[in-house]
Amino acid sequence: MDIQDLRIFTRVAAMQNLSAVGTEMSLTPGTISKRLQALEDELSVRLFDRTTRSIRITEEGALFLEHVDRILAELELARASVDGNVKSPRGKLKISAPVHIGGREVGEGISSFMRQHPEIEIHAELTDRNVSLQEEGFDVAIKTGVLADSALIAKRLATNPHVIAASQVYLDKHGVPKTPNELERHCCLVHGEDWAWPFARRNAQRSVRVTGRLRTNDDRLLMRAALDGHGLIRVSSGRVRSALADGRLRTVLEDYDTTGDSAVWAVYPRNRHMLPRLRSFVDFFAAWTRAAVDEDHQCKDVPVSGDGGRIRSAKENQQAAAPQPTRSKTPAPARKRAPRPRKKTAKRA
Asked: Which CATH number fits domain 162-261: 3.90.1170.50, 3.30.450.20, 3.30.70.20, 3.40.190.290?
């Protein structure tokens, strides 16, 4: 039984498209079909029901797939144990990640990882869409926010601090909310199904259901709407760092923690055993993400008064708080008094 045939079988089972598997593995659809047929002939069982428009795994094929996934994973581990992969990870790694985590570009992190691990080949797709790891063949996906329940394994890399912000134009028109309850009369820009915004203060937690004119799963659209004065946005602090620094947005309800359960996660399928290259990537990205989050905290901007409503950056605040050097004044030399003229007295005769 050919190992390559088993790999083809698992990819066809996941993607259910011969052309897509052929593109991924640099083979023609005809070759993929012949290799599957050869595998079925060897097993004397039909693994897929095929028509001109679709391909669907059979019950026998699904049972066979469970064993094949385990065999291929064990094969990878066996190979790693003898070829030095444990000390020097190598091989291909297909990654999905958002374009940004906080205020940093994920591409920077991937580039740093490649410098540290020159023998790992990276296929990265940077996107904010929700990818299907199994069907699209990803080894790992970096995700932000609150994860939905699934059969995937998730490793928490770092918290993902959030703030609530709006443009000065919106706040001038609708007022600044002082408590979470006041959000009920404000226009809020909602990400996906995130209608309940969490708040924590002094060990007390609660959520407020918000409403608004815009709901979308696109962060860029939410940012554009907030900048244009359409409402309040709950967003990762790093995503609005520059907008806060230059005054385009202003944070509100700063006394409350609105992070909730939001975090940065590494997600991978259950059948992907922690191979050395995957473990190396997850460990590296955990450290990189924590550094990104710490950077966001250090660069957090706060509003100041007496400055036209402008948001002053953390650096400016540090400079303002620092004791100002005093110039040493050299005492001026004492002025010499001119001698007082003496009164002339008449000489006695």
From this structure: 3.40.190.290
